[in-house]
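Figure S7 source data.
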Amino acid sequence: MTYDIIVVGAGIVGLATALKIKEKDQTLKVLVLDKENEIADHQTGNNSGVIHSGLYYKPGSLKATNCIKGYNMLIEFCDKYGVPYELCGKIVVATSKDEIPYLHKLHERGTQNGLTNLKLLQKEELKEYEPHVNGLEAIRVPQTGIIDYKVVCEKYAEVLQESQDNSLKLGEKVLDIKTNASGSTVITQKNSYDTKLVVNCSGLYSDKVARFTEQKMDVRIIPFRGEYYELVREKQYLVKNLIYPVPDPNFPFLGVHFTRMIHGGIEAGPNAVFAFKREGYTKSDVNITEMLESLAWPGFQKVVSKYWRTGLGEMYRSFSKQAFTKALQKLLPEIESKDLKPGGAGVRAQACDRKGGLIDDFLILENKSAINVCNAPSPAATSSLSIGDTVSDLALKRFT
Ligand SMILES: Cc1cc2nc3c(=O)[nH]c(=O)nc-3n(C[C@H](O)[C@H](O)[C@H](O)COP(=O)(O)OP(=O)(O)OC[C@H]3O[C@@H](n4cnc5c(N)ncnc54)[C@H](O)[C@@H]3O)c2cc1C
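Tokens for the predicted flavin-adenine dinucleotide complex:
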């Protein structure tokens, strides 16, 4: 079986990329492969379900530009195909005086990133939006929304498969990619497929799949599990929409928040703890080989030696519900440990370079036979169509 392009990974980035290729060139034969029997089974299907507005990201970074462009593309897609979403807005709350300067900086940053109608709220105004929140000042971001990204992916897959030459095969783990003069052979446990180009969107395994075609991979994926609690029904009145803390500029992905879910209910979380397995959704999930690979990576060792205190704090909150509750009480003092029941978990694919840099922006590495999306962290679900647009342009250049 011969294809023009094989996309590895039917998460939101892989599906959006295939969709954009199809939109731009109907003549190309595209195949999407995923090892699971369902699409969006990993990061995409286990995330917070937030449509991010682009408030936090450094102006001009790939994250900032893709978030805002992707946000608009996502809303347009959902309107066109009837995918449910809700733009309920969020508030980012400063709970101590030392957070206020950074809160103001975020306000400036959001404005620079093109967000309109951002509102700085004083203590009393904040209560009008979230009466139970404890805060000194806050920003209200009206653009932020909620959605189910698995439903988005189902629609991407449906639209993609309307064309006969585009297909999606599940339950096919890519085990190897052999490159040759005319392209590559992608080997799964069931089949072999010839293709002119491979697009690697395999999330938590993007470094491993990249290594099939790329000799100089100086980036490793380190998995961080994000655990959630859910608010018991009787206490859901405490949260109207989305409530976020001011992020730590050194660790923007840390800081538990409250999220109203599109299908009902309120989630609290996620934290970020080193996972002993790439797809380790529970504390007891361990894969010795994967764990040792992470621990042996010089970049991760540097991260641990520098930030072990922060890591231990996250670990402690993971094992102690009391400590997790305490972190949440900063935002919502009325909440008690008994108001929280265990929820789900997701695992983030965090790319880490050899020098100990946790790569914050999207990272795409190209070689003769493949385009490797090696880092697609949050807000990649929001930005998926914009990332797909960029990656599809890179792919189509190879066919002109
Ligand atoms: C806890 C958490 C909360 C988040 N919250 C948000 C949010 O609210 N909003 C937002 O915009 N973003 C959020 N994100 C980020 C977002 O979910 C991810 O950036 C995005 O889903 C990445 O998509 P992906 O397609 O790259 O990866 P994935 O969804 O992980 O997809 C990769 C796919 O590749 C497949 N695969 C891997 N290896 C192979 C192989 N060898 N052969 C075949 N298939 C393979 C996997 O099975 C998987 O389906 C969150 C992430 C996490 C973890």
